[in-house]
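Morning run. Coffee first, then this:
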Amino acid sequence: ISIVDPEIVGNMNLIPGGFTAEYGDRSSGVLEIDTLEPEGINTMVGMSFSAFQVNSSGVFDDDKGYWLISGRRGFMDVVMKLAGAEEDGEKETIRFWDGFGKIGYRLTPNNELIFGFLAADDSMDLEENEPNEILDLESSYGNSYAWLKHKCIATEKLLFETTVYAGRVDDTRTIHSEEFGDISDVKDDRKVDIFGAKQDWSWDVSNRHYLKMGWEYRRYKADYDYMNAFDFENSIPDDRFLPPQGNREYQGQYSESQYSAYLSDQIRLLDKLSAEIGARFDHYSVSDENVIGPR
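And here it is:
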């Protein structure tokens, strides 16, 4: 959740366990985050010891449309440089940024279209050039998501939402080390692409009866590119250390599709007591497995 600016959060709900059928295929926990609803035009610019941030929100076309954007950029690299982190032949650079944006427009009183995106990246570069010792380390992790949502109020008691989304997660690590004549290289690149579509229906049957159902299609594609090369030259064998490892290279691509559907029924037994029962179906193509579970 650190890639979402707290200044734009309107509501946050943590579900640590006992998921309903809507989130039945998750593990560990579910965190729901709703952003603020723009009212008027507001812009904020701020700066802390480690980051610069700006966010803006507003409405247009007689309140039919609205926008909300946020961006942050860390300058730990500047702070560490001023603190002398590049002395004695060493250089350490840490950078991070994140951005969020959404724009919505009410096509009719009962139809609304929303486009949004969320992106973030952090990286670290470490260089050491002391005599007879060289170490170059580059590590970065980034992710980006975009979605298009359509909200429709079909009747006074029936609402449905349709969402199409895509995303990418990148993880890169590169290490180069030379110490006393030895050489070691490591390269680790990972990339995951996500694409999906979902639809959720909500039916307010009565004051004490609420029905929710939906379906989702999700597809993953992962690329792996790994290589290491160790060349430890030692004219005198030393049994105290493990022998050097040889060259290793691996490249692979994997894909998976997931199909899901759920039905959930919430009944309010008392004014302050409610019960929910539901069922969920999931199909995983990578293992050709069907999972049906009551919730």
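Residues 76-82 form the longest helix (7 residues). Good start to the day.
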